[in-house]
Specification:
By secondary structure, the protein is of the alpha/beta class. The protein has 14 helices and 11 strands. It has a single domain (15-319), classed as D-Maltodextrin-Binding Protein, domain 2, CATH 3.40.190. The structure holds (2S)-2-hydroxybutanedioic acid. One of its GO terms (cellular component) is outer membrane-bounded periplasmic space.
């Protein structure tokens, strides 16, 4: 019996000594589509590596906000991150293609872009900046919430302070209607809304629900003014330090996590929209086809402003995927 216990101890000690720990930081809750998919990824990596690889998850921005996380990735403090496309745009401006107002019409078109020349181009650009994009993940189309007035047409946003994640395309889109974009990290938005420092914000149903933004807002316009998605990334330096078996194991886990993420993003956004309606008195402003046409046409007139940042070629490529 003693020998058996000794062998068990040696077994666990050897796993402990020879195991590698990789950290992943993100800003959303564990119960969001991204949070759930990252937990899924962790479980699969740890199980398939028989404990040789451990994944430590730091959610809710407890370790870094997304911009700090990109820097931490480069410095090897964390090994994975899943920032929004808008934030990785600090390094690769063309990722703002997903922020373009009304360029993408459907989730099908978004998914087609993930496996098209659009994604190959973005991956290549990211690599030049030292990042390896391992997967493209969904959240959903964004809606606008406001405190004091309903937003029916684009110019109703005039003069309102709206929190954004801070890409050029997102900010310019709001400036085109006279709104004042307020760039702040995700995890302080709730306090800004509570204190009345901002008038509104735009995000997906899952983020609005899991962060409780709806508690401090009175109107929600189903504007779909841009898409929120994520690049699951690592640094080139870290990726090249892994052996081919480790890379394969991570990619296999990520493939399954990605399929899971697409399902859960769709389900959670549907479910969280219903929950917002149940738990709040927010007035919901739906977009009928006439309203949608008005919004689309307003912003499409300005597309050329975005050509120098996103590139006309990339925009045309996305239009071909409709
Ligand atoms: C935001 O800052 O609004 C989003 O990028 C948060 C997230 O990761 O969904």
């Amino acid at each position: 019996m003693r020998i058996f216990q000794f062998l068990v101890l040696i077994f666990f000690l050897s796993i402990y000594c020879y195991s590698k720990t990789f950290r992943i930081s993100h800003v959303v809750s564990d119960n969001s589509p991204k949070g759930l998919a990252i937990s899924f990824f962790k479980k699969h990596v740890e199980f398939n590596s028989k404990g040789k690889i451990k994944i430590e998850i730091y959610p809710n921005g407890v370790l870094f906000d997304d911009r700090e996380a990109l820097d931490a990735l480069k410095r090897g403090i964390i090994q994975f991150a899943a920032p929004s496309f808008s934030k990785i745009a600090d390094y690769v401006p063309e990722f703002q293609i997903y922020d373009m107002p009304y360029l993408f019409k459907s989730m099908d078109q978004i998914h087609r872009s993930y496996i098209s020349d659009v994604s190959s181009y973005l991956k290549q650009k990211a690599l030049v900046k030292g990042f390896v994009v391992l997967a493209f993940w969904d959240n959903g189309f964004k809606v606008i919430t406001t405190r004091d007035k309903p937003i029916l047409k684009p110019l109703d946003l005039k003069g309102l302070k709206i929190r954004t994640q801070g890409s050029f395309v997102i900010n310019k889109t709001l400036e085109l209607v006279g709104a004042k974009p307020v760039v702040k990290p995700f995890n302080v938005v709730i306090d800004l809304l509570k204190a009345g420092i901002i008038d509104g914000q735009q995000n997906t149903f899952s983020n609005i629900y899991t962060q409780g933004f709806y508690k401090y807002q009175n109107y929600m316009t189903l504007s779909r003014l841009g898409f929120l998605g994520y690049a699951f990334i690592t640094s080139n330096k870290f990726w090249n330090s892994l052996n081919s078996k480790e890379k394969k194991l991570i990619m296999n886990a990520l493939e399954e996590a990605t399929a899971f993420e697409y399902r859960v993003a769709e389900e959670k956004n549907k479910d969280n929209f219903i929950r917002i309606k149940i738990h709040s008195n927010m007035k919901i402003i739906k977009m009928d086809s006439k309203m949608l046409k008005l919004w689309e046409e307003y912003f499409k007139n300005y597309y050329s402003i975005f050509y120098p940042v996103v590139g006309k070629k990339l925009i045309d490529e996305v239009l071909r995927l409709e």
